[in-house]
Amino acid sequence: MKALKRLAAVPLLLLVLTSCRSVSEYMTVKAAREVIERSFGPVENVRLKCIEASGECDSYEINASDGILTISGSSQSAICYAFNLYLRQACHVMSCWGGRNGDIPESWPDFSASATSPYQLRYFLNVCTFGYSSAYWDWDRWSDELDWMALHGVNMPLASVASEAIAKRVWMKLGLSSEEADAFFTGAAHLPWHRMGNLNSFDGPLSDSWHESQIELQHKILDRMRSLGMEPVAPAFAGFVPPAFMEKHPEIEATLLHWGGFEDKYNACVLSPDSPYFNEIGKMFIQEWEKEFGKAKYWLSDSFNEMKLPVEPGDEEGKHKILAEYGKAIYSSIVAGDPDAVWVTQGWTFGYQHDFWDTESLKALLSEVPDDRMIIVDLGNDYPKWVWHTEQTWKVQDGFHGKKWIYSYVPNFGGKVIPTGELQMYAEGAQEVFAAGLADNLLGFGSAPEGIENNEVIYELLADMAWRKEAVGLDGWIRDYCLARYGYCGEDMLKAWDLLRASVYSSLYSYPRFTWQTVVPDRRRISRHDVNDNFAEALKLFAGCADKCMESELYRNDLVEFASLWFAEVADRHYEKALEAESQAVAEKELEKAVAILHNVDRLLASHPDYSLGRWVDFARRSAGSDSAENIATADRYEANAKRLITTWGGWQEDYAARFWAGMIESYYIPRMEIYFSSGKEALDLWEEEWINTPYTNAEKAFENPLQSVRELLDSIE
Predict the structure, then answer these.
(1) Which of 62, 156, 369, 388 has its CA at 20 to 30 Å from residue 534's CA atom?
(2) Gyration radius of the chain over CA positions
(3) 173-227: pLDDT as tens digits
């Protein structure tokens, strides 16, 4: 009888399990369809289906026939990526940061494709992106970005918003007042470096209204991420404590670290790894975050970003001992709050400071952490070989000594927008790992730009690289890219892109900017770019395609950008002559020529949807809320902080985030150049500060017909 009862329960169990799968599949398809329709509008004759993943890695299948499009995927992001891939390759439609080219066809063209990603995780964002791009974003802009991520296959994004609101709760529970806690935080645009322990208090404090708005925003962000099957990487405690906490606890042992040329009052103090507070505070961070936002699996903690522990020279044993203790302390503090947690750390500093992080030192840091409870994001695989002229970190560190890791690039520093990037490298770089036999613990592939909304070709390419082991054939890929982006790819367009690949997209520099953006040549961070004669010829060919690409918004964007860059280069040559001139008269004449060209560059850039100081300032000011007197004062402060990040920055970073934007050239760079050549150049620092703190009056004025203006300027500017 009991056996019969057990057997009778089996169909019910199967029904429940089937029902659960059906609900899950329904929600997966529903979320993917919502992304598609938010991005492209209603679509008909499209079937979205769930399929089983290939092990732990996503798969997709595309089949279009008889006007019916069927997209099958093992996750929301797999379905969204496959749909976006189909639009690019079969329909010549592209949607990206700068806008969209092409319309959804009335009947879906025949097409078939399938793939399984070699990577379980497809990572996106950089801690610094939350300063250089998204510091003051609202929900509408975040919503667009999350849809962009889904369409580009991302399933592991950083989720740093509202970190400070959680931290404040912890500090107040530990005895700090509201004012003492807020005084620890930087201004919003500088928060990434606060989160990594590089910077405290600078351009702060934050307010209760800021914390409240960020909590509300983070809930929306996380809800969307989770609905799309993404695994957000949440912030964890890295050991940095406020001065007020140290004052209340004189027994605390902490080490003052240094970064970026800032005064000690802005530098960080990190707890000793054997401090009982380390574990206690770390546990509280995790618990407080999960109480507000729910469970997370991955937790980011970076304790030594571009900072070296002050160890005694030659004391390798002591160095390794304290690094092992820090590794154990960080991991223990995370799992104390969530026993199932995985510690994620950025591997940038292991390459950036490779003299400090030799093999034995990194082994020491990792030695007390279980192999399956840590992921190293190997940022900046574009930099060791091509900029630092060293071996890549994953090679030096033998695939990170048994730890799981993610192969990633940093295609952008500081949000600078001048085209740069070694396309061939991005098309084939990760394949080295598989060839070297070091892919056993390779868990993911990622892109970690410091600033986004630029160099879109790179991000389209990297999105595709996350779904293949083999290199991409760039000739065919570029042809498909041009058809999708511009609706045209004749021999003239292909020749233009061959020359772009031989100039700006065959180079990689940390500081791609012009001399006029630095006033005088920066000897600490030398400005470089390849806006050269090959680029000039590419521009002429590209501009010659205008009549065939008139309907493409993205073509207009790129023509405006490429032309502006060339004219800015011509201006730069005049400006450098002014700097080198032996007489005041010659200097003034060359400066005048540079300024005249740059006025036109500013007007051209005003036609670009993303390259605008006014847009940047508007985001900052809107973050303050309504137009009450109090909020206007707050808006002024937010604007000043946003403008400081892209100009004087602080410490040694001046002009690091140099932006090639409308309004920026007209209101900042041109007046600064003119002041430098005047009798009042000794007051330049005061003028910069005044500019930062004076609300921007947006007078950006685009040419009525930017394409025609490009042609006219090409004829008039030597």
Answers:
(1) 388
(2) 26
(3) 999 999 999 999 999 999 999 999 999 999 999 999 999 999 999 999 999 999 9
